[in-house]
Amino acid sequence: MYNTDPHTAPEESKIVVAHNPCYELIYDNSKNRIYLTVKGFWKNREAVPHFLDDLQKALRLVKPDFSLLSDLRTMLTHPQRLSSLHIEAHNLIKLAGLSKAAIVVPIDRIATLQVEEINSKSTMSSENFSSVVEAEIWLTA
Fold it and tell me: Choosing a second label site near 5 at 20 to 30 A (CA), which of 42, 63, 89, 91?
């Protein structure tokens, strides 16, 4: 589709890969960055049946050495059995050529502990932040 706004270039476009009550995945072509927002409580894998497929769609858009900003502020503690889903997602992201990952930690303290545990079991290295602004600054540096 033709963009009629003279102040935006096609390479600055953001592509919404997935948007639903549980998560949002956006690819920003101008930054070569995936934005993943995890929302609320995921009861089980059936609550997010397309999560890994949607993530793979986003990963097909990236160029080598892409970055990730994962916003988990509104995430609530997930059942322990979902940890493997998150670790699987981390592994896919790393294998796709990730260069930097910033995680905005959950507001919920127990969910933050869960994220730390998942990160310790993951092969994907990342830095934790308390705000999206801090994470963006670090990723851009």
Answer: 63
